[in-house]
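thought: fold this chain, then report.
action: predict
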Amino acid sequence: MAADTTQLEGLRILVAEDEGLIALELETVLQGFGCEVIGPVSRVAEVLREAQRGNLDGALLDVNLRGEQIFAILPQLIALGLKIVITSGYDDATLFPPDFRSLPRLAKPFDERALRAMCEVAFRR
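observation:
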């Protein structure tokens, strides 16, 4: 039986992940949900460029991209109205700057069900 893709079908999701296998897995799983994947990108500057281009329904952002943290550009992304889910190997919110602790967060490694549930909530149309 095919998975129900209706809630996520057609969503344009930016993936920012510098770990090749994780990026590939995310891309495959999101496509399985019916999403169009933008990226994956592996640098903070690329995240900002894609977000400024617009036409995104959401973004899955790794905290640390090639040694740069995503927190520096989060205010700009939020100002653009981008719906964000932070992905991190650290599940402890206190490791994040206080302004960003309330953002939806998915700890790595994640499973497909958790990813789907998070996307359905965070990227709801």
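thought: worth noting. The chain has four helices and seven strands.
final: tokens above.
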